[in-house]
Structures are given as C-alpha cells and as structure tokens.
Amino acid sequence: MQYARLGNSGLVVSKLAFGAMTFGAGSGANASIYKLDQQAADALVAQALEAGVNFFNTADGYAGGQSEQMLGKALASRRFDAVIATKVGFRTGEALIRSGLSRRHILASAEGSLRRLGTDYIDVYLVHRLDPFTPLEETLEALDSLVRQGKVRYVGYSNWPAWLAAKAIGLQQKHGWARFVAAEMYYSLIGRDLEHEIVPFAQDAGIGIMVWSPLAGGFLSGKYTRDDPTGGGGRLTGFDFIPFEREHGYTVVDALKAIAADYNAAPAQVALAWLLARPAIASVLVGASKPEQLADNLAAANLQLRAEQRQSLDELTAPTALYPNWFNAKTIDEEVRNALGQSP
C-alpha cells in the first residue's frame, strides 16, 4: 500500500481508501448501489485493513445512515487503527430543516454520525455539497465549533468550485477557524475537469484531494462495451449519474485494455494507477460489492505504469483548455522560464 499526508496536515492516509457507499439497502435512484449486508461489510473492511488500507469513507446520506452504522460495526475494535471520513449536507429526513449546511443541521448531523459510527470523534468531516441558502460564515463557524469540541479532527469539502473553497479558506484564516485540509472530488480518465482550476488551487492551498468515482461509475472497469453498453446489467443501468461522451469513453477503455495486457492486469487497475500518480491526489476511493473486486482494485497500488504509458493516457484524455488558462499558457515569458530552468 502507498501512503500520503492528507493535504498540509500530519494525518497519514492510505492512497487507496475504502468507500462504504455500497453498505446497506434502499430504494429509489441509488438502489443499484446499496447492496451489502453487515456480514459482507465486515468481510470487505477486514480485507481492506489486511491490505494496508487505513482510510474509510462514508456519508450520513448513504442508505439513510445505514452505511455509517455498518462501517462503525465493521471497524469495531479496529476503530483506532482507522481514519474515518464522513459527510454532511444532503437531506436526511422529510422536515425542511433536515438538509443543507446550516449550523443547526451540521451540529445535529455530526451527533447522528457519531452515534451511528459508534465513535467519539470523526477524523475527517466534509461538507458534501453546496448550500446556496446558508451564509458561508455560518457553515465554517459550525465546523470550527465541532473541532474545538473534539468531535471532529479535520474538516474539508466535497464538490465545491475552487473560487468558493478559496473564499472559505480566506474566512477561516481571518477568524482563526479550523482550516480545510481535504477535498473529495470526482476525477477520472474521462472526467478531468478539476485540472482546470481545482488541482492548481489545491496544490497552492495545501489541500489533499480525495477522488470519488475514479472509474466513472464503473465504466472504466471495461465491462461496458460498444457491443454491450449495459455491461451485463451493471451499476450504470440503474445509476447513470456522471456525464461523459460514450464513444470517447469506449476509446479510452480500449487503451486501458491494451496497457493492462502488458501487466496481466485489469483495465480498472490501470485507470487507478494513472490516478495514483497524479499531482495533488492524496487518496483514491475504491468501493466493492465482492471480495475479488476489492482485491483487484487494491492491487492497483502495486502497479507502476511506464512514463510513455502515462503520457499516452494523458494525451488521449486531455481536457480542452479553458479561458483564461489557454491565454496565460500561450503568453508566458519563455525567456524567463528558460532562465529559471522550468519546464512547460
């Protein structure tokens, strides 16, 4: 297993983290994701710990809180060997106020997460989404109060734009509030949008990126093909949430399969290995519903792609430059850059 500091903090986490979104049962849009009972959860968590994983991720909105409860039971006596991240922000009940990032909802949700997880503290507490109806200062002060009470060790955000995270850090510094050290964001070979603004910001601000859905909902596993776009009835048939151009996706999967053949590996392992080598990435979340699937994903920690292979994937999936990024890249002073020995 590989390890890294979580942003500019002293917290050391495994570069492959275990995502517990598959724990529990439910109906509706996420029914195809929630599929594991406690016995299966126990087995997968034990397998992850044995492989050197120390970072476990969940949220209060997963399976109505079942994911947190099952993860807590699965870790049990190993809780102090593990780093637990959970999230707040999505609706957790019918009442209008049981949602968002108000002080009331954050404090109440933290208490609920602590109870379900069966722990006295949350290692990493993340705001799960934007809340346009709550002042940013209110959200940040509530997170700080949890840290001061000892109920949360570190704070972070998920799915925020760079400008808002930058504004938040400015407010945290101004008021002496607990500072963001982590950002859980979507990133994959067919979804590299965060490279435009979020990655440069995270590197500058000392924020460690935790990657969710590194296989684009399972598409990069290779089982979804032009001949069988349903993947034999895979997750995407019931939870097709991430937008991407399918034909380009198939081309990327073909490239992954070609590289995987060199290592007797799976396409998913190549996709994960590419992410593990990317700058600013602290940890990549992998989920599983079967032991063999988890073993395959965890094996990516031992896969070192050759430089030319990484470059070929970089070029194949390079995102289109956005303004003003392309303007600044084209107008940099080459003489100064060369004199300083910096590469393009």
TrEMBL record:
| Taxonomic superkingdom | Bacteria
Q: Name one GO cellular component term.
A: cytosol
Q: Which residues form the NADP-dependent oxidoreductase domain?
A: 15-316
- Cited Pfam families: Aldo_ket_red (PF00248)
Any one GO MF term held by the record is:
oxidoreductase activity
Q: Which UniProt keywords apply?
A: Oxidoreductase
* InterPro entries according to UniProt: AKR_Detox_Biosynth, NAD(P)_OxRdtase_dom_sf, NADP_OxRdtase_dom
Q: What is this protein called?
A: Aldo/keto reductase
Organism, per UniProt?
Gloeobacter kilaueensis (strain ATCC BAA-2537 / CCAP 1431/1 / ULC 316 / JS1)
